[in-house]
Amino acid sequence: MELRKSYFADERKEDLHEVGQPRPRSDALGHVTGSTTFFADRNIPGLLHLKMVRSPHHHARILSVDTSEAVKHPGVVRIVTATDVPHNIYTILTLIQIGPEDEPVLATGKVRWKGEAIVAVLAETERAAQEAAAKVHIDYEVLPAVFSIEEALKPGAPLVNEYHPGNYYHYDSGECRKVRYGDVAEGFRQADHVLEQTYSSSPIEHAATETTGCIVVPERNERFTCYTNTQAMFFTLDNTSIILQMPGHKLHFVGGTVGGGFGGKVDVIVEPIAILSAKLTGRPVSFIYSRHEEMQVSSTRAAEKVVIKDGVMKDGRIVARQVSCYTDAGAYSRHSPYGAQKGAGHFPGPYTIPNVWADCYCVYTNRTPSSAMRGFGVTIADFALEVQMDKLARLIGMDPLEFRFVNAYRDGDIKAHRQATEGAALIEVMQEASRAANWPVADKFYAMSSYKKEP
Amino acid sequence: MAMLHGRGVAAINYPTGMNLGGDPTQALVHSTPTGNFVVTLSSVDLGQGMRQIMAQICAETIGVPTERIIVDTADTDTGPHCMGTFASRGTHRAGNAVIQAAKEARQVMLEVAAEELEVNASDLETDGVGNINIKGAPQRSISIFDTALAAHFKQGRSISGRGIFLVPRSYPDTATGAMKPATCYAHACTVADVEVDDETGEVTVLAIKNIFEIGRALNPKMVEQQLVGGSWMGISHALYETTEPYYPSRDFGGVDFNEYLMPGPGDLAETEIIVLERPAADGPYGAKGPGEMCANPLIPAVANAVFDAVGVRIDTLPITPERILRALKEQKADKRPAG
Asked: Is A367 in the B-facing interface, judged by CB distances under 8 Å?
């Protein structure tokens, strides 16, 4: 890696001593020698292991749950079902007033995706818990399921989640988060070319080295210590407090050393049920996802569909951009309504376009819920936007890098979400890319600057 | 049948933080009796090295070497509130809170030293190696070790400080979408060189050139680890990864690292990284959040390079050999003369 200090030198003071220095990480030696203590590196006497009974169906009514055989399995200590959960409906973002609560901790009445948690089994060993979980008998009436964004939005489609009529998130702005800037219809009329293209993606797993999990110890003072690898300590504590109807002072969360997050550890999934289990048994409880659960049960990056329609002039200026973006949330909200909205704030990308229209939908399907993941709301949008930029450049016969210079945003430019641009540096990263990759552009583009005042 | 070379470019920006929900983080700083400083947080180190960065920020602000900082984080009984480590917000939000707390602690430290030296606190400066000097007269000085002892056992003062950084919530306008979704923006441009085997559909990413503008590289080595790792994740997203290869069908999903495809060491491209620094007005020492964005430009750059190589567009991720071969087959069929 090289630092190119020649750019923006007038905006930096080189007067720092500790910051800016490549000091070795204090935790590096522990990590590379395998001696760092992670949450699971604890030998706790009397530890119980939790295994979850999960739905084999994408969408089904639960007719009956029979745990009588499982509870007799050697080593089983307790079975936890929906009726044991004090407030068995939640949504993580309720803490920032993004509702409604739409997801049960343990399914009751219905399951809405294959892998949904229904019954928790607590046993002396992991093996006993796993074997007993196989002995829980659940009768289902299978219901029609929807798997794709298109199916979900069809009139008369099976309803995925009763809290989201029409199978989409209801924003205060209606069926989607909307951005309206200028007049796209007028822009398309002016344009020399109009290009509409559709982009899509499939769900992606965070694939962190360490799987999601926690160990809970009930303390003598009636508090619960939860050793966890959550990415958000108080987010998890406060949500747990609501779900378990347990005052916050009973909860003590310890964490902060995590084997990779990437957004995969911001769903409040393992802690509430593990703490409840510790309370019900009076024993320490471990609930750690297997790799299988991490891959197919834990939230993914959402599959997305992005439709972009652009109006472009022969000289390279984009005069209108209309985007419809669909986030496949799966069966429950988790962080997806937020991610879809984050996308709305991101379009039309780092370009100055006078007419912009964006509709960002959060759609429910009978799939593993998606949630936060590195750059969500933006990553797939950038894939779509930047492939579209390439197509537009080729359509008008312009070099793809030069085409980006023509449209690049600069300080003071008003973006579609009506904020003035500050601290832009798109032009400079492209100038340096042109030099480093030996991808020459016309001299006038090397003379450009993100600064407000041009020379 | 041939190995075809292609080149693609992509340019992006990326927001720091999550202002659409209100975005606070707090920090506390206090000195030990011998003049070391403890930063107390509830932020989470995900493996990216947050503890190290908070230590360097605190050291810079107080004016002591980094090794004198102890970071105590992620215990809800002791650490003040943090929204969490996500949305590229850790360094930016927690860093700003640490600066505020450290400034307050530094001020008390200078006041204690001033009383020991019988001068005004405003006449003092730190030398960065553990002493407090009188400006212009460095021969008159007191060590931070002695200053902390005096505060604890003689003057009865707590060398400590409190910090919070809060970006108030932005509510999008329902009609226009006017909003302030983030504070500062990082930038990136990637050029990818690929080779595509038109017989197997396999893509090899030969080389990537990444230019990132990240405000300020607070620790250049740690920035590098983040940007290299993110770049490879981007390549992985572009060409390999999904839990459901035939989405929206739920079949054939991988359940372990044998079935869930990711690039191995032999699949990774030669990676060159160049960093530009345009300090963010509201960033801790100008830093923006580069954590998430470094994966993003790789995906379209690789997609555009694949098109440049073989002339077919794969607009669905991931760009698998199967999708490339099907598109090539279709391309051939289209070119066949009618009738």
From this structure: yes
Give chain B's count of helices (H) and strands (E).
6, 11
Candidate from B219, B262, B318 with C-beta closest to A207: B262
Q: Could you say which residues from 232 to 271 on chain A have a Cβ atom under 8 Å away from some Cβ of chain B? A: 232-235, 237, 251-263, 265-266
Q: Are residues A85 and A225 in the same domain?
A: yes
146-165 in A: which are within 8 Å (CB) of B?
147-149, 151
DSSP secondary structure, A30-90, as one string? HHHTT-PPPTT----TT-EEEEEEE-SSSSEEEEEEE-HHHHTSTTEEEEE-GGG-TT--B
Residue from B149, B150, B155, B128 nearest B64 by CA: B128
Residue contact A200–B227, C-beta within 8 A: no
**A17 contacts in chain B (CB < 8 Å):** 60, 128
Q: Which residue has the tokens 């704030």?
A: A345
Distance from CA of A278 to the nearest CA of B (A): 19
Å between A254 CA and nearest CA of chain B: 5
Neighbours of B21 (CB within 10 A): 18
- Containing structural domain, residue A336: 165-204+299-410
The domain that holds A243 is classified in CATH as 3.90.1170.50
Q: Report yes or no on A388 lying in a domain.
A: yes
Q: Could you say which residues from 20 to 79 on chain A have a Cβ atom under 8 Å away from some Cβ of chain B?
A: 20-27, 31, 58
Alpha helical stretches, state H, chain B: 50-62, 95-117, 144-150, 220-239, 298-310, 321-335
Which of B115, B199, B292, B330 is catalytic? The answer is B292
Rounded Cα distance between A208 and A428, Å, is: 33
**Pick from B49, B212, B292: which is nearest to A27 by CB?**
B49
In a shared domain, residues A348 and A257: no
Contacts of B220 in chain A (CB under 8 A): 1, 3, 20, 22
CB contact under 8 A, B44 and A17: no
CB of A230 less than 8 A from some CB of B: yes
Alpha-carbon distance values, A305 to A11, A273, A363, B254 (Å): 40, 34, 11, 22
* Distance of alpha carbon A210 from alpha carbon B300, whole angstroms: 29
Place of tokens 């200053």: B147
Q: What CATH topology corresponds to B3-15+183-335?
A: Aldehyde Oxidoreductase; domain 4 (3.30.365)
In this prediction the ipTM stands at 0.97
* B interface test, pick of A4, A373, A387, A422 with most B CB neighbours within 10 Å: A387
Query: Where are the domains positioned within chain B?
Result: 3-15+183-335, 21-166
Side by side, which strands form the sheet with A60-66? A110-111, A60-66, A137-142
Kindly give the confidence (pLDDT) of every residue in chain B, 339 residues in length, as a single tens digit, with 9 standing for 90 and above.
799 999 999 999 999 887 777 889 999 999 999 999 999 999 999 988 999 999 999 999 999 999 999 999 999 999 999 999 888 899 999 999 999 999 999 999 999 999 999 999 999 999 999 999 999 998 899 999 999 999 999 999 999 999 999 988 889 999 999 998 888 999 999 999 999 999 999 999 999 999 999 999 999 999 999 999 999 999 999 999 999 999 999 999 999 999 999 998 888 899 999 999 999 999 999 999 888 999 999 999 999 999 999 999 999 999 999 999 999 999 999 877 654
Cβ atoms within 10 A of the Cβ of B121, count? 17
* B21-166: CATH number: 3.30.365.10
CATH of the domain at A313: 3.30.365.10
**In this complex, do A22 and B220 lie within 8 Å of one another by their Cβ atoms?**
yes
Q: Which two tokens stand for residue B43?
A: 């932020």
| CB contact at 8 A, B290 and B212 | yes
Sign of CA dihedral A283, A288, A290, A295: positive
pTM over 0.95: yes
Let me know whether A312 and A280 are in one domain. Answer: no
